[in-house]
Design a protein that fits this description.
- Helices cover 31% and strands 16% of the residues.
- By secondary structure, the chain is α+β, with helices and mostly antiparallel strands.
- The chain is globular and about 80 Å long.
- The protein starts with a helix and ends in a 6-residue tail after the last helix.
- The relative contact order is 0.13.
- The model has no long low-confidence stretch (mean pLDDT 88).
Length: 204
Amino acid sequence: MARSAYRHSATSFRRLLKPEGASERRATLMTWRRTPAVTRLEHPWRRERARALGWKSKPGFVVARVRLRRGGQRKRAIIAGRRPKRKGILRLTLAKSLQRIAEERAQKHFPNLEVLNSYWVGEDGHSRFFEVLLIDPDHPVIRTDPKVSWITEPAHKGRVYRGRTSAGQRGRGLRWKGTGAERMRPSRKANQKYFRRTQTKVIP
């Protein structure tokens, strides 16, 4: 039985992640490091993953590769005046994942587009690379496509900044359902405001 092009794409990507694809993977990452931080692509590098997340090979769809620096974003240590506890360089963890940051940077680079989704494509000791799928909500092809025309509605404007993408929902804890997740919806901040407003103050 003949394989589809998407199956071939998935097989070749998995081969790159194995030891036999190390040299090709290294050469690819070296090439990517020399490109700008946000690079527009003609087509996705992982076609099968992009297709699964809603990308289509038609006008109105844009693919961008984003490069980010890896690590915990630690600041350089200062020499004088404070002990390590007060330097502000230890035990710091990003509130957002690198994938969310990559989506926001792609949105800033293409302000007239909306982020649909993103996925990981590679990393080395210094950088991590994501491909971000974007859609032009004003394109007539997008407006007439019933499967993606939902993104043209005003409620989805700037969706990446409000945690409405898949990576954003994961960062907001919305993958967690059931007991213990009662305060995650509609958001943790909304629940905090609600409890502050409804709690009764006891005057001794």
